[in-house]
Write a structure and sequence with these properties.
single chain; 443 residues; mainly alpha; three-stranded antiparallel beta sheet; globular
Amino acid sequence: MERKAGMASPVERFVCPGKGNGLRATARIRRGQLVTSAEPLGCCVSNKRSREVCHHCFTRQETLLRCSQCKMARYCNTACQKQAWSGHKRECKCLRSLLPRRPTDSVRLAARLIFALLSPPKSTSSELFTLEEHESHLNSMSEQKKQGLAQLASMLELYVQQEASDLAQEMTSALPPSCQDPLSLIAKVTCNCFTISDGELQEVGVGLYPSLSLLNHDCRPNCVMVFEGTRLQLRAVQDIGPKEELTISYIETLSLTEERQRQLEEQYHFVCRCQRCDSKEEEGLMLSGEEEKWRQLKEALPRLEGLKTESNWQVLLESCSSLLSAAGGDVPDENLYRLRVTDMALDAAVHQGQWEEALRYGMKTLPAYRLYYPDPHPVHGVQLMRVGKLQHYMEHIEDALDTFKEAFIIMKITHGEDHPLTTDLKIKMEECRQEIDTQLSHR
């Protein structure tokens, strides 16, 4: 994976009091502006998606060509396979040696980073932050977490040693000290990598984008990240003044303060003290309704997540439906746990082809999304687009056009006018307008 020349201004690295390194604006940045975009230093398709996503361009395809040697890498066509070969060549040997076992995503990504650093790009890269400088956070980890990482580190050693016996020597001469130690490298990867998602915001892979690892977290951030293939785009969702810090959210923001803080501490080793965490102003709404009833929804979530992971859509739909009926009017649509169950019911109904039911669930989620995403957010835009497509399919054309328009207002800020998903949305709006015109002319 080649490194593209780093990042043009309007951003610079700075030391942020109490947070360590950060990124800030060097000039005024307008809401909706593309702040910067970057290709990863290393990336790989997630194991759970490895059969349905091209390992070069990260596009979903029904049928993919399989690498005849490692039997794992898959590609759209021979063009993608040829372009991927320089990055896949060393990995291919490693994958073959482990068959039928597969390395975990973080081990595969760490190995790709080693190979990327051993064959640096011809052009000089102007990354603002090197892999050497990335934090491993090993000192602040529990013993249990360290042991888990140590197992991954030994898997990484076993995995890369197959590539060449002299790799160890090569690594010592070419790699910075903290990247030579497998445990330190694995720890850096797990704390700093980004999940690469597709247009529908479903995970397709993981990647390390060194300069963007500088971005600090906020539970109501002023920037969001979207992907086009493996290219990460950082876009502003608020106006940002010169010298103001740029922030993203490391986690799903639609959750309770306590849940967010626990996840951030476990995964990223810091306690969040952002304005949203301090004010807790949404908590009352998120936990509205009769506690006894919403607790049942909360307690059912792990089981429902399990059904979703297994793609057991029919049972998931039945479970969600009966849970929501039992909660009845005692738990309003704004309740966080009701919203999560309704979202899963929407997913399950779409997979079951039960469009009318899917639309009913989708409509129920929208007022809560409007409430909990005060700034433009990709998750909100994509949800509106899903509901609009269901309305269109059910021939509620005028409703669909209104929903698509609302999605467009958000997505031209979060994704930009040129993103494939925004283009798809514009086509859908045009289809609705033409259908409305046709209906009018036939009256």
